[in-house]
Amino acid sequence: MFSFDRQITRTLHEEHLVTISILERLEGVFQKHGPKKAPPGDSAEITELLGDIINLVACDVTNHFSFEEEKLFPLLGAMGDSPISSILTGEHRVILPLGNLLSELAKMARSEGFNDASWGQFRKGGTELIERMISHIQKEEMALLPMLEDILEEDTDAQLMMTYSEMR
Amino acid sequence: MMGANFLSGAGGRLLPASIPFRFFTVAVIFYALFWAALFVSADDLTSYTIGGGPILSVIHMATLGVLSMTVIGASLQLLSVATRKAFKGFWLCRLVSWFYIPGIFLLTYAMYTSWYLGMLTGAGLTGVGLLIFCGLIIHNIWGVTDMAAIMAYCWAAMLSLAGLLGLGILLIVNGAHGFMADHFALATSHFILAVFGFMTLLAMGFSYILIPMFALSPAPPEGLGRWSVGGNITGLIGTLIGVNIYLDWLVMVGIAFIFFGSGLYIFAMSRVYKARMRKRLGLPFILIRISWVMLLASVIWGGVGAAGYWPESGHILFAAGAIVGWLLTFLVGVLQRIIPFLASMHSSGNGGVPMLTSAMADERLLTVNVIGHLGGLFAVILGVMLDWDMVIRAGAVMGFAGAMGLLIYLLYIIRHLASFRGQ
Question: pLDDT of A149-165, one tens digit each?
């Protein structure tokens, strides 16, 4: 894995790992179940995955994005490196509503199960979320986190970590 | 760690999409032309040893048309971001294409028809394009002190490029006037510098940036890269000297060093692959992993040849393994990943809704590309081993179908990128 020295970069990186692992499970479910027919309602694997998606969007994605936009991107802007921030912010604007939609569909499915139509909608949104999120994480892992490693001092790192813990 | 933060500031250092994509488009066109020309000339393949004609043209369609073209497009885009030094003046990057692209078309056509003046003019245009490229790269890496191994790969590749260019032009002139005593040693040196010097060294150097990025994985330790580039450069020098002063044992030692350097490179890449965050890496990595196997197999086969155990068509098998099996397979895998990645970067930077690459083009076309390419590679190698041109032709048909899959995919992406930018 990447060897990040700062607490905040390590934390964001660990959240990326969790996100990728959930998205890969989701991808696995989509490979097993096609777009037309909803999977059986008694699948423990899918029930557990739906819970994880709801948590992921509520905690990791929403807080992660807000923290980046409110605390980290202004830091990069002050360093004069705003293009990557504007690329990532633009992607947040698309990914977050998509995540929220998927979370809502997952909540409905947990209480009522999927029918063919809701499964189709969930699968379509999920497929898009996987592609957008993986590409987004790729940019953050290769650009944002290494840049933060370069610019953060120990005390700023501790301060950011504390702020992020409070936000979470 | 090497190249871990190479995307830093990427938004500000992305070249205009038209620059890398023009090289990628022509590379994929040559990829299709290569298989088509191989189909037409399959019966000449196993008997080819040296000199002009269709097979020489087919080889250069692959090496200069596909491999160097892809390497130029990828280097111009990646190097400025890796070194955090923007290229001064995009017009120079465009100038490379204005010389290089028509030069390759003329050179390969002239080689195919054994037209001496055309070959010389084509080689001249190509050479000017490559020299401008070489100048751009040297200007960009000059004074860069971090990422020492990657920079060493770049320097060694540029020196190889200068050497192979000089030898290439010398070979054309010697082919017409015959003033050099040993044309074969010259041709062998040109081949080694092109395939295991310029293209392999750049492919290896950029792997240290690209593979961790695509696999979402940590970059390998710097030390591995340094030993690997050291082994490759020492091996290259030893092999070249051995070939030219007729010392077989020195050629063997050189190949052993290249084996050591290539082995370390593959070891480093395997570590990157195993530590990846994203487990499902898809089709491009099937090609990339097969290419690594083919790299080692080609070097071993080169050693078998240097020891004097090649069968009659052993040299063609070596060329097919190194050019199609290693370099072409690797770079097609890289193209399959870098095209959607760059499209995503360019569509994200405009403030609108970033485009999904899966919405830009049907990804089943990439499956067609992989199946066609691997089927073509397998059949061509089998056909050369059996000296059976029908099998080579069948491989060329599969390869052509695969290349068309990639070409159509690329054209869809370009069309969407153009319409997106138009909005």
Answer: 878 888 999 999 999 98
